Amino acid sequence: MCLAVPGRVLDIGEKDGTRMATVDFGGVHKEVCLEYLPDLQVGEYAIVHVGFALQRLDEESARQTLALFEELGMLQEEFGDPWEQAAAQAGADSPWPFADAPFAGEATAPRHAQVRHAQEEGRL
User: Fold this and answer.
1) pTM of this prediction?
2) C or N terminus of the chain, fewer CB within 10 Å?
């Protein structure tokens, strides 16, 4: 699911000619495009969808929404590690099927190789 999530602007800058901000979503910080809200300032809240700030939001509404999303587990769903989420959905005991074991002579396996190997064995 892809949510529109309220976040608080921490800082504002420019990247490749585009106005960007670091936004705090209840402890998760992401880079967000501010082109749709060019007058948004540090400390203000906005609704963010797929990396774009779309609408200014008052602080109380933002805090209530973030609290509700957290309670429902939706922030983890939206911002959590997709590899860990896939492993959890597949019923794996640990986030990485071979987290502690060498893979094909390597000290550690790249994530995609670990997942592919688990899929071949029918564990994912």
Assistant:
1) 0.58
2) N
According to DSSP, the residues that pair with 53 across neighbouring strands are: 48
- Quick one: DSSP state of residue 4? -
Judge contact between 46 and 38, C-beta under 8 A. no
Using left for φ > 0, alpha for ψ between -120 and 50, and beta otherwise, residue 4 falls in beta
**Tell me, what's the pLDDT at 69?**
76
Q: Where are the beta strands (DSSP E) in 1-124?
A: 5-15, 18-25, 28-33, 45-49, 52-57
Count of CB atoms situated within 10 Å of the CB of 95: 15
> pLDDT (tens digit, 9 = 90+) per residue, 68-95?
877 777 666 566 555 555 666 666 555 5
At 18-33, the pLDDT tens digits run: 999 999 987 888 999 9
Distance of CA 64 to the CA centre of its chain: 19
Cβ neighbour number for residue 13 with a 10 Å cutoff? 11
> What tokens does 62 get?
């933002």
